[in-house]
Amino acid sequence: MATSEAVLQVLGCSLPSLYGSDNSFRKLGSSHTSKSFIRYRKKRGSKYVNFLNWSNTSYRAIRVDHFLSTRRPLHGRSVKCKCQQADSASSIASEKENGAWFVDNDQSFDTVHGNTPIVLQFETVREVKVGEKECFQSNGSLPPNGSVQDDLNRIAGNSIEDEAWELLRESMVYYCGSPIGTIAAKDPNSSAANVLNYDHVFIRDFIPSGIAFLLKGEYDIVRNFILHTLQLQSWEKTMDCHSPGQGLMPASFKVRTVPLDGDDSATEEVLDPDFGEAAIGRVAPVDSGLWWIILLRAYGKSSGDLSVQERIDVQTGIKMILRLCLADGFDMFPTLLVTDGSCMIDRRMGIHGHPLEIQLEALFHSALLCAREMLTPEDGSADLIRALNNRLVALSFHIREYYWIDMKKLNEIYRYKTEEYSYDAVNKFNIYPDQISPWLVEWMPSKGGYLIGNLQPAHMDFRFFSLGNLWSIVCSLTTDDQSHAILDLIEAKWTDLVADMPFKICYPALEGQEWQIITGCDPKNTPWSYHNGGAWPTLLWQLAVASIKMNRPEIAAKAVEVAEKRIARDKWPEYYDTKKARFIGKQARLFQTWSIAGYLVAKLLLANPSAANILVTQEDSELLNAFSCAISSNPRRKKRGPKSSQKTYIV
């Protein structure tokens, strides 16, 4: 009863700031001057508030809460299981992080474990005047200007968050009775034959889900995910009698129930990983291990539990991933040489070679910094840490020097001389000025810049890839000036990169003959769709971290406001099509988990910006000094000579 009265008081203009400080929500019309009524009713176990406008007999239903529904695991717990569960981290979870209804201090109800008392089981009608200055507070005084409108907008925003949390929890997967991850999508419209692998737990897809749970103080699911995926790292993986290098993490896995050996009447749960041998295109996931390292660090910084990263098996897993990435090869560059489709863009899109968007140069740099922070000092790690430091310095210099593009750099390329044969050549990669596309000349703002998508001999991919640029800010791969310039460009090109739904995965789209040649006429990657210029709501959380790090959170807040206008109404699509993101994607799954989690992480970080520190990495003084030495030594004139006999790293 007390709770319902509090809600009525809010809606009656007496508690204008009860829901928090963020008022970047969809604005309800304020032009109505007729009397309206607020009616509470129960529908299918949830509560709604109906705003009935008697002047036009229409109403708007706004979801108020989801906390009455009790949480039940998706999988039955009667299954016989022989697996050893990951150690419980329940003792680490802070009770104060349990979700609460409306209030910020999280003291009233526990929405996670279902012990919220049933309230609002009656119908109450209270008269208010929406949008009128005559709306009085309970004490008879006039409320602050717009307080009613702000309260209603906050209720609308909270209702979207409540729905998102409910959907995220419904996507949870259980293994041996414990949560282990979230499936990629739970689209009720997908038939069993059309599910493909969207019922798997993907490493990269779980990252925003894991961050959301960490920010809510729910650590067990992240800990279980980290330790069980680590076990899968050592599995044998072959395709056509060939095995990749040790240390490869799976792209995804699925919990399957199989008959127990020797007893057909009993069953057990097993994890069935996919390392790319079953994926469309048969491409190994290069980014999975890097995301795993980043999540491991975030878990330790969020929970305070460093015992996980200090475990021998976890330390071994980190080293195996690093050995795979740092192995010597034929390449002259410090960037990773990878095939097309080995990251979030998992189809042929012309990003083979040394792509920024493999998230690799950005993710690779981030993972190296995280691993450097977590590796325990011991004799066996000395060579590895030395090689890691050398690679960090070389990678930072290479990306900042050769991948950065702004109006000044564009003019330099335009005046490049070609076919330079010398050790001090300016045009090191023999880039032909005619490669500068007409769209880029018109598109590049006078203030702002970005990291190009790819760099290879005689080839620069000038497309703007969002994830690579945003994560370069997060992991300090770019300088402060470059980071601000990227955000300046996003603001200047808002109508191209955000438009009706954030955020374009790349810009511009491949069209015409270029689309035919580069994608192979891929019917899913048609222009302005899917990975070819589609808009992906999950990128909201990377935008939020990058904006907060540079002390410009208003950029992310504005993008969240755009998303809130339709993402819940559209049923949380995987991606959006068309140049302005007007349509739900042609083949987009609905209720896509990382679209849901990306929105939640953005909201949580905007409400508590300091929490972004679990993801942000900074260069320390040692690396900065080494980087300064690399610049001052002028690599163009570096003396050549025999390689030092000292072996810095043995694979």
UniProtKB/TrEMBL annotation:
InterPro entries named among the record's database cross-references: 6-hairpin_glycosidase_sf (IPR008928), 6hp_glycosidase-like_sf (IPR012341), Glyco_hydro_100 (IPR024746)
Function: Invertase that cleaves sucrose into glucose and fructose.
Protein name: Alkaline/neutral invertase
Molecular function in Gene Ontology: endo-alpha-N-acetylgalactosaminidase activity; sucrose alpha-glucosidase activity
Coiled-coil residues: none
One GO BP: sucrose catabolic process
Origin species: Anisodus tanguticus
EC number: 3.2.1.26
UniProtKB keywords: Carbohydrate metabolism, Glycosidase, Hydrolase
Gene3D superfamilies membership: 1.50.10.10
Highest rank taxon of the organism: Eukaryota
Protein family (similarity comment): Belongs to the glycosyl hydrolase 100 family.
GO cellular component terms given for this protein: chloroplast
